[in-house]
Write a structure and sequence with these properties.
Blueprint: H1 6-17, H2 29-41, H3 54-63, H4 66-74, E1 77-78, E2 88-93, E3 96-102, E4 106-109, E5 116-119, E6 123-127
């Protein structure tokens, strides 16, 4: 559930994470959105899953792709056109699906050296941040 000050918490969390470099299991696409969501809602949705290497992440995604994992973690999908500030989106970049946070007309997610923004037009799936 989103607290009354959710927008402030969201922006503070993104601001903290946007300068962090990519790191498997700490600041990859899934952990970036999970950590932002957890900072806002206080809920841990990873159901005990953890990974720390590209190989471990690949093994988890071989069982279920990132969209199926996001369905487990974040619940029912909404159409990406209905995503609003703070909602979680899957974005397709050069044939690779990554998770990111909607920040209006763009989405922000973990990047190699710091967070990257992509147009929301790249969003293929979406989930609400919280109730």
């Amino acid at each position: 559930m989103k607290p009354q000050n959710w927008a402030t918490l969201l922006l503070q969390s993104i601001e903290t994470r946007r300068v962090l470099p990519f790191e498997w299991g700490t600041n990859d696409c899934a952990k970036f959105v999970h950590n932002v969501r957890q900072d806002v809602t206080g809920e841990d949705r990873l159901n005990g899953l953890s990974w720390s290497t590209a190989r471990e992440a690949a093994e988890l995604l071989a069982e279920k792709d990132i969209v199926a994992r996001a369905d487990e973690w974040f619940g029912e999908q909404i159409h990406p056109n209905y995503a609003t500030m703070g909602d979680i989106v899957a974005v397709d970049i050069d044939g690779r699906t990554s998770l990111a946070i909607c920040i209006g007309t763009e989405a922000i997610g973990a990047g190699e050296f710091q967070a990257v923004k992509v147009p929301m037009a790249f969003a293929t799936n979406a989930w609400r941040l919280g109730d």
